[in-house]
User: What shape does this take?
Amino acid sequence: MPRRTPPGRWLRLSESTHRSRPAPQQPSGDVVAKDKTPQAPKPQMIGNRWAGPAMVTSGIIGLVWIVVFYTVSNQVIDYPSFLQWYSDLGNWNLAIGMGFIVAAFGFAMKWE
Assistant: This one.
């Protein structure tokens, strides 16, 4: 049977659906015992925000390095003095370009 309220009294929702609990009692005395167990430090997220841009930049530099080597190596060009070292490297340019690409894969492993 549904619960009836006395005439002239409205039933509150909290009274009709929930039982009221007594307030928790504090222990008597001056000193309240506290939890003495040490709290574990919260894990901190180490941000690797630099890894994504470093990966893309390193991959693009490696790709451009190899493409420029292949397009320029078969042509006779009088390099400016600041680019003479590029032609002096010879086939080592492939190793340098691949090194940048391998570094991009290394940065990809750091990226979260």
Q: What stands out?
A: The two ends are 60 Å apart (CA to CA). The CA atoms of residues 3 and 16 lie 8 Å apart. The longest helix spans residues 51-73. The chain has four helices and no strands.
